[in-house]
Structures are given as structure tokens and as C-alpha cells.
Input
Amino acid sequence: HQVRVIDPTTLQLQLGARRGRLIRRFKRLVTPDVVIPRLATGVGAFALPMLEQLEAQGAAVLDRADAIGV
Output
């Protein structure tokens, strides 16, 4: 297994005609198999749309965006 820690403030959400995608360092972020979100105070409002996009792309998310945003 490979573990990567990604700061959500380094991501860009690119919206297209068909679907959105996440960009990091000018490259498309490959959808991970599993996401375990750990969001610091202050980045939640920015990070939740990124997490929702990962869910839409098929990643299994331990704590879903709708549960965190409550």
C-alpha cells in the first residue's frame, strides 16, 4: 500500500462539461482508492468541495463531506 498526505489547499477543482476533476501541481490527481480526511480548522470550507469531488470520482471516503460539513 502507498500512503500520501495531501494538503487540500494545494488542490484546484477544475470544472468541465462532463465532470469535474482535481488538479495538483498542474497535473490531474489520480483518484485514490480510499480517503481518510483530516481537516484542520479553517480549511474545512475550502476542503469540503475537494472531498465531494473525490467521492464523485469513486473514492471510498471514511468520513464523507456531508457528515463533516454538519
